[in-house]
Write a structure and sequence with these properties.
It is built from 9 helices and 12 strands. By secondary structure, the protein is an alpha/beta fold. The chain folds into 2 domains: 107 residues, 3-Layer(aba) Sandwich (Rossmann fold), CATH 3.40.50; 179 residues, Rossmann fold. The strands form 2 sheets. Strands 8-7-6-9-10-11-12 form a 7-stranded parallel sheet. The protein has a 5-stranded parallel sheet with strand order 2-1-3-4-5, covered by helices on one side.
């Protein structure tokens, strides 16, 4: 039996020495050179072509090379009884917390406005409230959301989280379910989106949701581009209702050169770099997951397909 490696973003040369050292008795195959499909036992993937996983009749597990699994679940031919496992990598959480903290502080201290003033050679002090009066809301409160909240907490921002099902977090006011979404948005001066992409969250940041944010709020999206209805976001920015947005993810990547987000004065664009999978950190986690699946032991990160994460 063999392990298939497929990725539209990762270089096999970066992974090969680590995975083969950790799983020395396994044969690895690099897509599209799958060999005999019936001999593939596990697939380690990022954005696999539709139908690839269904073509592997003896597949025992699908492992994502990132924290998200929407790229796998979007395949309508995905074998129904094969476990799909998302990557629970502490280094991803640490990177995400760094990025989100940077973006929150940039919006809080109005660095975008100061950049515009620098361009205009204008020397003017802008009003900035105390951190204790700038309310930050985090949509999605799994490993990444918890890491971001922990990193932001020492600055004194009043923190809130929004999740699908009720949970608690020390020092964070938690909201749950659609019934509490409006109240959560209404108290979020800086909104951070870390939600998994599911049918229920697709387009969740639309005109109605953005209008529920306080006047002058800012939006940070580091989850998936499809969470944001871009036309509605641009309208809210152009009207002056929203003060700015930091976007690391987009429905189409790379972002088209003529896309209006590139040149919008209130938008910061980065190329999906908030949290990058590092093979040195992730390879041991992936190898350990394969070993646990083989042994029939419990595995962290197995996806609930009904929930989509």
């Amino acid at each position: 039996m063999a392990i298939l490696f497929q990725s539209s973003a990762d270089r096999w040369a970066d992974w090969q020495p680590r995975l083969t050292a950790l799983l020395p008795d396994d044969e690895f195959r690099l897509h599209p050179d799958t060999g005999d499909p019936a001999s593939i036992e596990f697939a380690v993937v990022w954005k696999p072509p539709i139908g690839l996983l269904a073509s592997l009749p003896n597949l025992k597990g699908v492992l994502s090379l990132g924290a998200g699994v929407d790229h796998i679940l979007a395949d309508p031919t995905l074998p129904p009884n094969v476990p799909v496992v998302r990557l629970l990598d502490p280094s991803l959480a640490a990177q995400m917390a760094e990025y989100v903290t940077l973006a929150v502080l940039a919006h809080h201290r109005r660095l975008g406005d100061y950049a515009a003033q620098q361009h205009a050679r204008a020397w003017r002090v802008l009003d900035v409230p105390e951190a204790s009066k700038r309310r930050v809301g985090i949509m999605g409160f799994g490993m990444l959301g918890e890491a971001c909240a922990a990193r932001l907490m020492p600055f004194g921002f009043p923190l809130a989280g929004w999740v699908r099902h009720a949970q608690t977090a020390e020092g964070v006011r938690m909201f749950a379910g659609t019934d509490q979404l409006a109240a959560f948005l209404a108290r979020s001066d800086i909104l951070v989106c870390l939600l998994p992409l599911t049918p229920a969250t697709h387009g969740i940041l639309n005109a109605r949701a953005l209008a529920l944010l306080p006047n002058g709020a800012a939006v940070i999206n580091v989850a998936r581009g499809a969470h944001v209805v871009v036309g509605d976001l641009l309208a809210a920015l152009d009207s002056g209702y929203l003060s700015g947005a930091t976007l690391d993810v987009f429905a189409g990547e790379p972002l088209a050169p003529d896309h209006p987000l590139w040149t919008h004065p209130k938008v910061t664009v980065t190329p999906h770099v908030a949290a990058i999978t590092w093979p040195a950190h992730a390879a041991p986690i992936i190898a350990g997951t394969i070993q646990r699946l083989r042994a029939g032991r419990p595995v962290a990160g197995v996806v609930n397909r009904q929930k989509g994460y």
